[in-house]
Write the structure tokens for this entry.
Amino acid sequence: MRDGEEFGLLGLDGTVGANLSAGVIRAEIRRGTGHGYRMTSGGLEILTVRREKGSADRLEISCDGIVYEARTSFLRNKATADSTSGEEVRINGGLSGRSYEVAFEAGDGRVPAVAVFLLYHTVAYRSQAYLMSR
């Protein structure tokens, strides 16, 4: 994937979940029990997410045995995730929330999955905050 290249379509269902289609790949993000989420594809679990207890902006994302500590800032429209193995994902949204830049080192399938989840989470909750402020 090159800079600026589209890789798929992420259809949001509010804070309940989303569907991703990218070529032949199909994935689904759904809210789980408690304060967590699951991403699945073809019935297989790709990653799980749980919110840190007592925190609205800190998440723990587990993907293929690797744990990512994620931080979100809906006011600044950005999110970051760092793994225990040194991988990182950065999401930066424009002021209007209509465009986002996603940065990560292309490696195995874990990092793009984490990036897609963080993008979903940032967009969905930023949109919800905007609607609540109206």
About this structure: Strands lie at 9-13, 17-22, 25-31, 36-41, 44-51, 58-63, 66-73, 78-83, 88-93, 100-104. Residues 64 and 109 are 9 Å apart (CA to CA).
